[in-house]
Amino acid sequence: MRQLTWDDLIPAHLLAEDPMAKYTPEQQDMVYWVINILETLPERNPDTEEYYKEVDEALPSLEKAGIDFKELMTKRRQIRTSVVEKLNGQQVRIPGYLLPLETSQGRVTEFLLVPYVGACIHVPPPPPNQIIHVKYNQKKGYKSSKLFEPVWVTGDIVIKSLLKELFLVDGSAEIAIGYSMQAKGVEPYKE
Known about the structure:
By secondary structure, the protein is of the alpha/beta class. It has 4 helices and 6 strands.
């Protein structure tokens, strides 16, 4: 059985490439600001036009500095959505935080495993290759003591792109997922 880290879920050649390395810290900050705005804003409409106006003003200055924003967005999307094909079908063990989706008799039977506390309920959610959809035996389940409980999950990991509706206090959101597991074991996190 292979023990994974979250970086193991991203193709190594993509992790090695840093498309931002050649830019100054100020340019990097500007690019990340624009990306975060574009990823978190709803579609352009009269209520969001002020924010889009700021982005529309920033893009020409990035272009003037020789920063190809579209290329950076393409590379970012590739890093965030690419999966590691050789993991498909392997038995693995990975730590993460449990975000319950379904429970049965007080036990969690379906959940999202995410790399950090608050993932998926804060905008933006982690990228698809940093979320694992986990199903656990209906009869067994996992007695979770809290939201985002740290756990170890053992099972066969498969590459499976899917969208899962996550219901939040203030609404719902569709979460893109890159991996799935049928858990053979879920246990509290211990190093």
